[in-house]
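Usage example:
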Amino acid sequence: MNKKLSQKIAFMIFRILGIMVVGILFWILGFIIYNGIEVISWEFIFSSPSEGMTEGGIFPAIVGTLSLVMGSMIFAFPLGVMSAIYTNEYAGNSWIVRFIRVMTNNLGSIPSIVFGLFGMALFVNTLGFGDSILAGSLTLGLLVLPLVIRTTEEALKAVPNSYRIGSLALGASKLQTIRKVVLPAAFPNITTGLILSIGRVSGETAPILFTVAAYFLPKLPNGIFDQVMALPYHLYVIVTSGTDIEASRPMAYGTALVLIAIVLIMNILAMIIRGHFNKKLKTN
Amino acid sequence: MKKIKRILERIVESILTVSGAVTSIAILLIIVFLFKEGLGLFNSPSVEKGYSLYVNSKNPVDQLSTIDTKQIFDSELTNWKELGGGNQEIKIFRFDELFNLYSEEELGEEYSLIPEKLGEIIINNPNIVAYLPDEYAPTDVQGVKVLASKNISLIDFFGGKQWMPTSTPSPLFGVLPLILGTLLVSIIAILIALPLGLGVAIYLSELAGERTRKLMKPTIELLAGIPSVVYGFFGLVVLVPIVQNIFGLSVGETAFTGSLILAIMALPTIITVAEDAMRNTPRDMREASLALGASQWQTIYKVVIPYSASGISAAVVLGIGRAIGETMAVLMVTGNAAVMPHSLFESVRTIPATIAAELGEAPAHGPHYQALFLLGCILFIITMIISITAEVISKKQPNKGV
Amino acid sequence: MIEAKNINFYYGDFHALKNINMAMDINTVTAFIGPSGCGKSTFLRIFNRMNDLIDKTRITGECIVDGENIYDKSIQVDELRKKIGMVFQKPNPFPKSIFENVAYGLRVNDMGDNKMIAQRVEESLKDAALWDEVKDKLKKSAFELSGGQQQRLCIARALAISPSILLMDEPASSLDPISTSKIEELIHNLKKDYTIVIVTHNMQQAARISDMTGFFMMGELVEFSETKKMFLNPEKDETQNYITGRFG
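Running the assembly step on the lines above writes:
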């Protein structure tokens, strides 16, 4: 078989594979949007489920997810940014830094269910928080911490060293340099990391199974020691159990649509910000 | 004033230093909590806590293994001689049967006469094995012998072929079906995802124009961001019926369906890492090959792929890690039969799915709970190994030359 | 008066500066010349202790500025750097506005309120011969300026905190000839108020603008004398060879 022909065939196969992968995304998205869009209504977003999850809305789950997102970000974002500042700006290239990077990578590859186990053992049981927003937020925060650290480190690395040197030569201290030059320059990319983390946390089920999620709560949460409903858990439950699986199906599509919308919007937003500001940096 | 500023700066810098340690502390804590709970399993008796097995003292049998116990109480083992005893049919006695034989008064006030009555029954039935709660047991009665209960052993756990955490009197915690289920689903998933992912990576890195890349890379990133439970939903509602119809099965929830959905989930990881590795092939190398008359395709498989081999391997390893650790999608799609898998088209159960499905019902700190934590430990170790392997592999870059 | 006494400097095991002794008067321009890698930039950075930022470096000897040894343990490095300004080879303005770039040093060192800062910014930009070109666009990003303008901006930024000494590391090497001559004119005008030390690859530049010149080779200060004398009648053969272009 001559060179040209085998190349043609090979390249055609690869093209098809590429189209297939894009096609899969559209298949999944299409499936959910097509079936879910008719369920979305004002009532769906703002009211509670009723009639055994076959009617009503998913408002408590939305509120629950939002509170978990906020809680986990309050915990993970400052801590992660500070940790990245330490490893990137202060610690040089010693074995300490390499060790920390390995640990961070390892933490980032742990399956989400293991976080759920740990969260239950530490926060719910040992520390006695019980099934609560607090326990769930801490568990989710831990899950997403490596993501925050990694994106912040990359953002810091992208700031040219000449800025730091210029600032120090003017008599600024290291901390002043970080505050006034490095962080502002890295800000867009750090924000990208924050947004991606929000998207990640919104969709996680396993870590909240045993730390906060509830099947049905008639009232909205009062404080951080309450349980909440959450979108991914809600989807899981009405698809696999619940009183009437068939009749709840439309609710499931609606829930999936809302969940995907949140995640996709976050990801697209992050991409836009990243693209826009990196273009700016490049023109210098 | 300057002094105060300096002190404040020192404080902030100390806080920064401490925060650098947070991930290491987290891993330490995870190890401690997981292993402390999980390893407690091997200190747990194999018979349900608070209960023991009693036989007639004349019965030569002193101990029963977990499997034997289960087989007896499932009426699979029916004769004492199979256990080293005499040729007698095994008679099973459960505690509740007492209430069929005696009336409330005969059992005495506050059931104080129960141990006596139980003792009588055992003495009168030399072929009996009784499963009794410790608080009412005939412990000091002559003619009654308690069977020593062994702790759950490593072999029970790692070699056991049955996972039945709720069976009485001895719950079975054999993880082989779960390990095999996990391996089966994950390996098939990678076998599907690898060629697909590599092909797309090659397409993106070598063939696609700038515009196509600008469209496809975000698409793949978006695929990576879809939550596991949504994949599970899609798998359940779309893939399961398809698999059921194409292969003519009675139920579509099979290991194969699980592999399909896992393959889709592992694709973005494989594609991005492999594509990155391939793009890093130095331009001079490619141009040297082309200048020698090689076609673009030949350059790809003779120069680019071998050069990026370490990066591609890292991609595969990371994809495997992703597949093994997946919980929700697999839980919703593989059917959840915790049995030894015999074919791709049967229901199976993976390790993460087991934890997710059973933890809610395991009494805290009991053997089932501990077993699930031990499963978590196994998962943790596997993913640690994978993460370290991927790092080591990707560091072994071939010499970039002078 | 700036003095270097028996300065020896090491990058790890590499002996980069070998027993340098030199003294510079105030309000003069001193040029350091020499082939690549001879240590002139390293020596320049001794004076504002920028070498401290590099790992595994070691220095012995004394460096006296304003009567104090700047390597003494009691010296606060950021205070030192307020007194000694630096301009780098490639212009490196911050990603901020023109105004904020010049004001940066004033702000981090708490030098005055907003009114004072605005005044100081204008003065510095005038000293750097940039004011007329940017006075209407102070809020615009510094990156909108040309290369030559950015370098003058960096000079203004360094001048704003009123240093007594200005260190310049090949300030014109990345600029076009017209910008270069503007910078040289600037240096000539700044001489009356500042003590300037400039590292340069360009011998003609050194001859044009400096009062004293030091010739470095392989970490040693081979010759240090009045510029006119160095170029017309050098004492050492190596100096002669370098100046006439016989090598490097």
